[in-house]
Amino acid sequence: MVKFITASLIVIMSIHSAWCQVEPKEPKEPLGLALENFKYPFPIQYIKLHIQGQDVSMAYMDIKPVANENGKTVLFLHGKNFFGAYWEKSIRFMAALGYRVIVPDQVGFGKSSKASIVYSFQLLAEQTKKLLDSLSIQTVAVVGHSMGGMLATRFTLMYPARVSHLILENPIGLEDYKVKVSYSSIEKEYQKELARTEASIRKYHETYYVVWKQEYEQYVQVQYRWTLSAEYNRLAWVNALTSHMIYTQPVVYEFANIKRPTLLIIGQADRTSIGKDALSEEERKTVGQYPTLGRKIAESITGAHLIEFENVGHIPHLENTERFNQALKDFIAQ
């Protein structure tokens, strides 16, 4: 009996000791709406803008060539669920080759002001031009990913003389979402934004990649920690406004008007589409088909070059950085 009690006490004490060694998870720190407490890989500067009666700030990184300056500039434009910092590896690569690199956070995103305004790609293109004007940059090679691809297309159409090369990386807007996705009001989109959770954000981000890596978690955490802010309702409203912009302002009908050297880099496993969650399972199979969409758009742009990345999803510059950077280097050098 004594041996049994002693053995039982040892087991209980071991369990208690192990339980005590498990550290409770620290509550996650909310992020300010302008990512005040989130560090970017390069110094941030700001340009002051006046938009629709509001004074706003547009954040940007201006990275000088590391060596062998060639006098050329690359402009990187981010996607909707991201911000300029996710271009870090490509920025370092191009700067090492002698390029000056400009990376703005568009108004409504990242470290820029979260303004409640009427968003349009024309507006964002105009503000981007103002940024380049303020830096006395006349010509750029424009690289746009996802929503940034829609913006890069609009910028090129509006200011063709300012663009030496256009590079579209898995851009959204290769199809008109209105054709298959029913209209969702800004108010409804706002409620969806308010309902976001850490799990739902991560689940969506996981669709971007063929193989999930821990390094991608930081982008989940930025969006989740934003939801913890006491001011998140402001950002949720801006997110709804920019979703409405994407849905209502397709660029697919204008690719044939692009007259600048164009490269499309398309991850073949990508199936990203706006509003896909509102479609039936069968309908989802008809949208976001990037292998088909990439070839169709490449045919519609005179002289466009298409590079297909097999076994890569929505963000080639993160999933296959080395190949993406090499493709960028080779194309811009032409």
Automatic annotation (TrEMBL):
A family per Pfam: Abhydrolase_1
GO cellular component, as recorded: membrane
Entries under InterPro entries matching the protein: AB_hydrolase_1 (IPR000073), AB_hydrolase_fold (IPR029058), AB_hydrolase_sf (IPR050266), Epox_hydrolase-like (IPR000639)
GO MF entry, a single one: monoacylglycerol lipase activity
A single BP term in Gene Ontology: acylglycerol catabolic process
Coiled-coil segments: none
Residue span, AB hydrolase-1 domain: 73-177
SUPFAM superfamilies found in the cross-reference section: alpha/beta-Hydrolases (SSF53474)
Signal peptide: none
Protein name: Pimeloyl-ACP methyl ester carboxylesterase
Source organism (scientific name): Ohtaekwangia koreensis
Lineage of origin: Bacteria, Pseudomonadati, Bacteroidota, Cytophagia, Cytophagales
